[in-house]
Amino acid sequence: MDDLPMSIAGWSELHDDVLEHLTSFLSLPDFHRFGAVCRNWHSVARQKRHPPRQLPWLVLGEDDATHKSKFFSLEENKTYLIEIPELQGQRLCGSSYGWLFTLDIELNFRLLNPLTRKQYDLPPLPPYNSHNNITTYVKGPRSENYFTFEAMQLSLVAKAILDHDPSRSSDFKVLIMYGERNRLAFWKLGDPTWTLIPDAYIRFNDIIFYKEDFYAVGCCSRYNEIYLVNTGLSPYAKRVGPLVKEYDTFTYLVDYLGELLIVQRYRKVYKGQLYKTEKIIIFKIDLEHERYSEYKPTEGYSVFMGANSCMTVDPSKYPGCKKNALYLTDLPQQVFERHGSKDLLIYDMVEGSFSRYYSTAHYLPASPIWLDPNY
Length: 375
Prior knowledge:
Blueprint: H1 8-12, H2 16-23, H3 28-35, H4 39-47, E1 57-62, E2 69-73, E3 78-82, E4 91-96, E5 99-103, E6 109-112, E7 119-121, H5 134-138, H6 149-156, E8 157-162, E9 173-178, E10 183-188, E11 195-196, E12 203-210, E13 213-220, E14 223-230, E15 236-245, E16 249-256, E17 259-270, E18 274-286, E19 291-294, E20 302-305, E21 311-313, E22 325-328, H7 336-339, E23 345-348, E24 354-355, E25 369-371
Parallel strand pairs: 20-22
Antiparallel strand pairs: 1-2, 1-25, 2-3, 4-5, 5-6, 6-7, 8-9, 9-10, 10-11, 12-13, 13-14, 14-15, 16-17, 17-18, 18-19, 20-21, 22-23, 23-24
């Protein structure tokens, strides 16, 4: 009898330490299946103290037929459908530390961990512009003078990021770019409303948490300007570092092994239908001495970037991941309402060449976003 396999009841009674160790060998879809076995296993899965080390997953939105969430595994080159009810009907506005920022049709803004299902309800968003709240547009009569809700969703929150992982500390803050002019606002746990950052009279393109501070970048008079964003008792955005020449590009801020980089993405309309990236230039920023220089990393590390907080990985630990590469998602712009998203690229920072990591015959309904499952 001692050689008989353990009964189902026996498996459900395994000690939590053993179950936690088992989860360290599971892929993201298998991790979800693990949590559905029984109540005890579900409880362990929600703890997620020993996650498996994996490359970032690409969140592709919702499958029309099943309403399940679509995830693309770069390591396996495979798309998975995973049932996560909290993601149904949601627009994704950001990704940090394995958490997703979601926005629904009722304008409810939330922070969600898709693996543990833990959520934070965030306060109502600040006014869309100085004249009207966003609800004036999306809940008013539909006519040619009104945006569709889908188009307005893309403008509500351009990007949202965290300073620290909420799974490990309740002392965290959220910074968002929001509204008609991509203004800045922040929130910390316990606050009833968003705190607005005094207007810097600039439209921001990207935000980052770098060396224990928030930073933002935007374009003014044909130059990219970097701002230190203070979220203390007297919040402000202060210009720091050099002015970086801008040439009709979209600009990202990247933390590359402790170096602050500006990545400029040059895009043109392709066949009158969608934007296509034609060129990328990378600058290393010296904030202290207000200097910048063109940069070609040779350390071998790669960066996953887009609407998410950028993630740097060591490709030598992940088969199939290219070294010295930028893995770029498409940009969250209103053009998606008409044409969808398709500009998903790998940029070789040494060779200056492009390739694709995800090909689709159909336009995606919205910009995909990278999710780090390692938290």
